[in-house]
Amino acid sequence: MRIILLFLWSSVALLAFNFEIINQELANGKSSLIKFKYEPSVEYKSIQVDGKKYQIFPSPREKGSFYALIPFSYYDKPATKTLELYYKENDTLKQKLLFLRLVRGKYAKETIHVDPSKVNPKSPKVKKRIAKEYSEAMRIYKSVTPKSYLREPFILPMQSKITSEFGKARVYNGSLKGYHSGTDFRAKTGTPIIAANDGKVALVKNRFYSGGTVILDHGEGIYTCYFHMSKFDVQEGQVVTKGQKLGLSGQSGRVTGPHLHFSARIAGVQVDPLQLISLLNNNLLKVQN
Ligand SMILES: [Zn+2]
Fold it and tell me: What's this model's pTM, rounded to 2 decimal places?
């Protein structure tokens, strides 16, 4: 792998700009990171994938370096993905095509038994509440704060056993209902939950499915979410630092028992939170000695 990457670096050095695709082959539900190096005549603009535009931002730690995060939905099909890179060279807008391979993730299936009223809610009032909560959350996830709060590597929201990974196909009370959209940590009610990184509190709310919910905006389209909480220690609009207590775990919302459901979004797309964290920690937020 290292040899291939070195080859990539040297082959693109002939072009006017320098880039590195950190993960050129990845599964549905994962994120890809592309890094760019400063070139005096080049201004990096954006990357477009499947008609969706992603911004290129300055790297939070490395001066003269830039990055773009490209999220792939769990429902994305295996394919060669074309990344249209837009950049300005000597004031002329140019396009360059980059490619990566999306493969099918090896995700398991799990069966879950929950209160039937939480699987297929029939009441119009509940349906209305769910729709409202969904559109409110999507409005948050899709807004890209043009600054980054990130300065240091991410940490986990608690030190505990992972009881269910991201991506498991889920069968609720016998019927298939999507997939597990985050990572579950074992946590008896009342266990402290901490911020995975610096950010701004975008939402604090009791919701139908996710129960006690906190959403953190880390800037530049990156969000982390903390579900099923029993108590909140933060307020909307508050700026929090990595490791700060957000509240306590619980078993509110659609759950089979107390735990923390931890998830992440990039530009509105739900992605594997632990893969995102290790991708960013190892390639963008690494502490240099
Ligand atoms: Zn979960």
Answer: 0.91
